[in-house]
Specification:
alpha/beta, 7-stranded mixed β-sheet, 6-stranded mixed β-sheet, 17 helices, 22 strands
C-alpha cells in the first residue's frame, strides 16, 4: 500500500502519533529557524533565473514573516520560456517512450532522495503539517515513476481493411503544455501535471501559485540534475498577468489548470479563442453520507479525513456530512472528542496535526463564512474561532480552530459554497432517496463519499451520486493509478491514471492502400 494511502487510512491523529515503519519527519527544526530562500525561482533552459517584473512579498503562513521577494515573470519572460520549450520539443518528442520513461523514473528516485528538503520547503510554502508534506512528496515520486512506466506502452491501434488494406492510429504529443498549479498542494500538483505530459512527449512551461512558489523550481532543478534536456520542463513565476500570457501564447498547445472555478472559467474562455484544449481540476462542495449501519469509528475517521487535512484547504473535501438521525448523537460526540484533541501550531514540528491557513486574506474569508453561518442560526459544536499559538514566533501566522457546525441546511451559504477551510457541516437525514437528492443538489461534482456496511446499498448510492470521484467506506484516497477529476462545474478532463496520459496526446489516423488507387470515375 502506498504511503499516501497509509497516512490517510490510519486516521490523522493515529497516524501522527505513531508513524508507520519507514516514515520519517524533518527533525530538530521549527518555524522559528532562519530559512534562506533564493529569489531566482524561474527555471528556463536548465538554469534558475530571476523574473524581470515587479516583486511580490510572499509570506510564510506559519509565521507571517516574509519568505521571499518573488520576482514576477513578465510577458517577455513567458515568451522566452515558451520558445525555449518549443525548441526542446523537437528533440524530446522524438525520443522513444522508454527513453522518456527512464528520465521520469530517475526524477522520481531523485525526489525520494531529497524528500526531507522538499517537504521542508512545502511546509514553509503552505503552512501544512510536515507529516502531510512528506506524504505529498512520496505521492509525487509515485506519480513520476508511474508515468515513467507507462511511457513505453503509449501506442496507437491497427485496423485490418478489405483487400489487404489497413489503417493505423498514432498517439502523438501536442507540443508545449502550459500548466498552472495550486497553492494547497504545490509540489504534488506540479508532479501530477508534468509527469503525464512529459511521458507523452510534450514539453511543459509550469506556473505555480504566487502564494506557494518554492517547490516547482526545486523539481525542475532535480529534473536537470538527472539528465532532462534543457527546456523540457521550464518554470515561470507570477500572478494572473503571467498566467494570462502563458495561457494565450500561440505556441502553447494545451492548458492544464488546478484552482478555483471562476479562474478555470476565465482560462477556458481564453483558450476557446484559439480552440485550445484544457484540463481543469476545479472546486467542489462534496457530500459525505453516513448511513445508520456505518461502522462509527471508521465513519468518524472518514469525516476527519474529509475535512481537516491541509487545514481543510482541499478541493475534494466532504464538507457536507449527512448523518442518519439514529447515529447523529454518537457521531457528534465522537467527532467532537477527536477534533478537540487535535494539536494546532508549528507545522514543522512532528507532533502538530494542523498548521496555518495559507494567508491572512484567506483566513479572514473562512472566518467570515463561519460568522455568517452562526448569525443565520448554525450551532458551533466545537471550534469556530481563531487559534492563538503560545509561541511568540507564530503570532503572525494564520490559524483557525477545526470547526464542527450543526443546525445548518442546504439553503445556507456555508453549505452551498466552497469554504476551503477546516469547517465540517453536519446535517441529519432519514431516507436514502432524500439524502441522495440533497447530495446532488450542487453545481459541483468533484467527489462524494458513502459509509455503510450494506455493500448493495453502497454501490447503489455511489452509482447515483453526480461526482467524478467517489469513496465507499473511506475518503480522500488518491493513488496515482486512478483517474481524478470532476463532474459539472468541478472541471473537465482527468488527472492521474492512464486517462491523463492519453489526454496529453492527439490521434493521427493513417490509411494504407496496398493496391492501386481506385479511379474516381471522372
Amino acid at each position: 500500500m502506498r504511503k499516501v494511502s497509509i497516512a490517510l487510512k490510519c486516521g490523522l491523529s493515529q497516524y501522527l502519533a505513531s508513524p508507520p515503519q519507514g516514515f520519517s519527519v524533518v527533525r530538530n527544526m521549527s518555524s522559528a529557524d532562519h530559512f534562506d530562500v533564493c529569489n531566482k525561482l524561474n527555471f528556463v533552459g536548465g538554469s534558475l533565473l530571476t523574473g524581470s517584473g515587479q516583486t511580490i512579498d510572499v509570506k510564510e503562513p506559519a509565521t507571517g514573516r516574509t519568505l521571499v521577494e518573488l520576482c514576477v515573470s513578465t510577458s517577455n519572460d513567458v515568451e522566452h520560456a515558451v520558445q525555449d520549450s518549443a525548441k526542446a520539443y523537437d528533440t524530446w518528442s522524438q525520443l522513444s517512450g522508454t527513453e522518456r520513461g527512464r528520465h521520469l523514473i530517475a526524477l522520481g528516485h531523485a525526489v525520494r532522495k531529497n524528500r526531507q528538503e522538499i517537504a521542508h520547503k512545502e511546509v514553509r510554502d503552505t503552512g501544512k503539517a510536515v507529516s502531510e508534506a512528506l506524504v505529498d512528496v512520496d505521492s509525487s515520486a509515485d506519480c513520476l515513476e508511474y508515468y515513467g512506466g507507462l511511457a513505453a506502452g503509449l501506442a496507437g491501434q491497427h485496423f485490418q481493411l478489405p483487400a489487404g488494406n489497413f489503417a493505423y492510429t498514432r498517439r502523438e504529443p501536442l507540443g508545449v503544455i502550459g500548466a498552472i498549479g495550486a497553492w494547497n498542494f504545490p509540489f504534488q500538483t506540479c508532479a501530477w501535471k508534468i509527469a503525464p505530459a512529459l511521458a507523452a512527449g510534450n514539453t511543459v512551461v509550469y506556473k505555480p501559485s504566487p502564494l506557494a512558489p518554492l517547490s516547482a523550481s526545486h523539481l525542475a532543478e532535480l529534473a536537470t540534475a538527472v539528465g532532462f534536456p534543457a527546456g523540457v520542463f521550464n518554470v515561470v513565476q507570477g500572478d494572473a498577468a503571467t498566467g494570462t500570457a502563458l495561457v494565450c501564447h500561440e505556441r502553447v498547445a494545451k492548458v492544464s489548470f488546478t484552482g478555483s472555478c471562476p479562474t478555470g472559467a476565465a482560462i477556458m474562455e481564453k483558450c476557446a479563442a484559439q480552440i485550445k484544449p484544457v484540463t481543469l481540476e476545479l472546486g467542489g462542495k462534496s457530500p459525505l453520507i453516513i448511513f445508520e449501519d456505518a461502522h462509527l469509528e471508521n465513519a468518524v475517521n472518514g469525516a476527519l479525513l474529509a475535512n481537516y487535512l491541509t487545514q481543510g484547504e482541499v478541493c475534494s473535501n466532504g464538507a457536507r456530512v449527512y448523518v442518519h438521525t439514529s447515529l447523529m448523537d454518537d457521531f457528534l460526540r465522537a467527532c467532537k472528542a477527536r477534533v478537540e484533541a487535535m494539536r494546532l501550531g508549528d507545522p514543522l514540528l512532528e507532533e502538530t496535526h494542523m498548521g496555518a491557513m495559507i494567508c491572512q486574506q484567506h483566513a479572514a474569508k473562512v472566518m467570515g463564512y463561519v460568522e455568517r453561518a452562526v448569525a443565520d442560526g448554525a450551532t458551533v459544536v466545537c471550534g469556530g474561532g481563531r487559534h492563538e499559538p503560545s509561541e511568540d514566533y507564530l503570532h503572525g501566522g494564520h490559524y483557525i480552530q477545526p470547526t464542527i457546525l450543526t443546525d445548518v441546511n442546504d439553503s445556507m451559504e456555508i453549505v452551498r459554497e466552497e469554504v476551503f477551510g477546516p469547517v465540517m457541516c453536519v446535517i441529519p437525514f432519514t431516507q436514502e432517496d432524500a439524502v441522495v437528492e440533497l447530495a446532488n443538489r450542487t453545481p459541483y461534482g468533484l467527489a462524494a463519499g458513502v459509509y455503510t456496511k450494506d455493500i448493495q446499498r453502497g454501490h447503489r448510492v455511489v452509482a447515483r451520486l453526480q461526482a467524478g470521484t467517489c469513496f465507499l467506506n473511506t475518503y480522500n484516497m488518491y493513488p496515482v493509478e486512478i483517474p481524478f477529476g470532476g463532474y459539472k462545474r468541478s472541471g473537465i478532463g482527468r488527472e492521474n491514471g492512464p486517462d491523463a496520459l492519453l489526454q496529453f496526446t492527439q490521434v493521427k489516423s493513417v490509411f494504407v492502400e496496398m493496391g492501386d488507387t481506385p479511379s474516381p470515375g471522372f
